[in-house]
């Protein structure tokens, strides 16, 4: 097993590198980079993409020296310094220069940094967990991720737990009563829940229970109340669950169908096997057969997939839910960073989440072995 884990860990490196290369290259072709964003903000223009597309007022021709359409009225020295600050260029000084590099100093000039060099500089920093500072928030990316993490973990963890707590007993019940009216109407209910878009269900919850048109039972936004620090320990717990109820329900609604049907089909496959008939022939009760023999084998694929399910919920539906319920989490931050072309946040979070996803895949394999020691990945050919 040790050799298998080592091989999987070694595969993480080229896989993560490939993901980073593809996304880094793609961003080079996306219009409206971070410098254009800063220029648009400096000039009070709300939509940088309109300028790039050629919309709006006609502008005078600035000549070949102007690299940015939105740069009219801004000094070239400001744009050069902006490129240096964002890592697109460096200051190179001659041998006679003394002191720190400065664009205004005699013998110093701006030198553009190529795409390949920028990528390797970025990856070298990532190896030391240096993700840089946000272009627009003036805060280290690591601190931003750490600050927003509790919101996304809350949605992912509680939604996954609720999905398992509801889906596993329901799936077992459906397997035992396969073909009965109970099986039919519960299948219709969970498929209908799966078909409802998460954002639409979230809006419905807001309208119904957060002061929309009916009841004001739950808060409209945030993860905690303004007076959270003044509450008692029990009050803090109650306040926390009061705030996360609607977002977690909205996130969980579509997760029941797949897990419930997977549990049901897994139990049905095991119930038809010979060892179950043998156990029944020995006079064991149905409960003993079901939970003493079938459960462990049937739940192998369901329980072992817990890490992957959590990561799927963690990454999948957080953006829309966080936006609707005004939760300041990773999904919302990543979306805003992509719109603003805040590359340190975009690539820093991509690197961290990509690494987490790959490691979770290894953890899922270890869960299989932990639940059923008969599984031997070492014997498989890679």
UniProtKB/TrEMBL annotation:
GO biological process per UniProt: microcin transport; transmembrane transport
Membrane topology category: Multi-pass membrane protein
Answer yes or no on keyword Mitochondrion: no
Enumerate the spans annotated as ABC transmembrane type-1 domain: 149-368
Keyword annotations: Cell inner membrane, Cell membrane, Membrane, Transmembrane, Transmembrane helix, Transport
What are the TM regions of this chain, as residue ranges?
A: 9-30, 149-170, 191-215, 240-263, 298-325, 345-371
Under the heading SUPFAM superfamilies, the entry gives: MetI-like (SSF161098)
Its chief place of residence is: membrane
InterPro entries per the UniProt record, alphabetical: MetI-like, MetI-like_sf
- Indicate yes or no for the key word Ion transport: no
Query: Where is the protein localized?
Result: Cell inner membrane; Cell membrane
Q: Which GO terms describe its cellular component?
A: plasma membrane
Q: Which family does it belong to?
A: Belongs to the binding-protein-dependent transport system permease family.
Identification of the protein by name: Microcin ABC transporter permease
């Amino acid at each position: 097993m040790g050799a298998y884990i080592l091989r999987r860990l070694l595969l993480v490196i080229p896989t993560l590198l490939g993901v980073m290369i593809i996304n880094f290259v793609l961003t080079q072709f996306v219009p409206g980079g971070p410098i254009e964003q800063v220029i648009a903000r400096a000039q009070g223009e709300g939509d940088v993409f309109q300028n790039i597309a050629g919309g709006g007022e006609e502008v005078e021709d600035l000549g070949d020296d102007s690299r940015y359409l939105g740069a009219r009225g801004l000094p070239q020295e400001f744009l050069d310094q902006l490129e240096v600050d964002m890592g697109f260029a460096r200051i190179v000084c001659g041998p006679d220069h003394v002191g720190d590099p400065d664009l205004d100093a005699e013998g110093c000039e701006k030198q553009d940094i190529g795409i390949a060099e920028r990528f390797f500089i970025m990856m070298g920093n990532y190896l030391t967990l240096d993700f840089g500072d946000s272009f627009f928030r003036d805060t280290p990316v690591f601190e931003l991720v750490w600050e927003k993490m509790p919101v996304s973990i809350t949605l992912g963890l509680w939604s996954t737990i609720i999905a398992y707590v509801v889906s596993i007993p329901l799936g077992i019940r459906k397997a035992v009563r396969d073909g009965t009216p109970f099986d039919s109407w519960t299948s219709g209910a969970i498929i209908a829940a799966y078909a409802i878009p998460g954002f639409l269900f979230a809006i419905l919850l807001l309208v119904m229970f957060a002061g929309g048109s009916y009841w004001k039972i739950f808060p409209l936004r945030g993860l905690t109340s303004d007076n959270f620090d003044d509450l008692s320990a029990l009050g803090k717990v109650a306040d926390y669950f009061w705030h996360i109820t609607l977002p977690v329900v909205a996130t969980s609604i579509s997760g029941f169908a797949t897990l419930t049907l997977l549990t049901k089909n897994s139990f049905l496959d095991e119930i038809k096997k010979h060892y179950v008939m043998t156990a029944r022939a020995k006079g064991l009760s149905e409960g003993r057969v079901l939970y003493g023999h079938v459960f462990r084998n049937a739940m192998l694929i369901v329980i072992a997939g817990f890490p992957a399910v959590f990561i799927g919920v963690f990454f999948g539906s957080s953006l829309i839910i966080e936006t609707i319920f005004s939760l300041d989490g990773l999904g919302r931050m990543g979306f805003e960073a992509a719109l603003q072309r805040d590359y340190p946040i975009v690539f820093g979070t991509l690197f961290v989440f990509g690494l987490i996803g790959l490691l979770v895949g290894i953890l899922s394999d270890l869960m299989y072995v932990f639940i059923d020691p008969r599984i031997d990945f070492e014997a498989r050919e890679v």
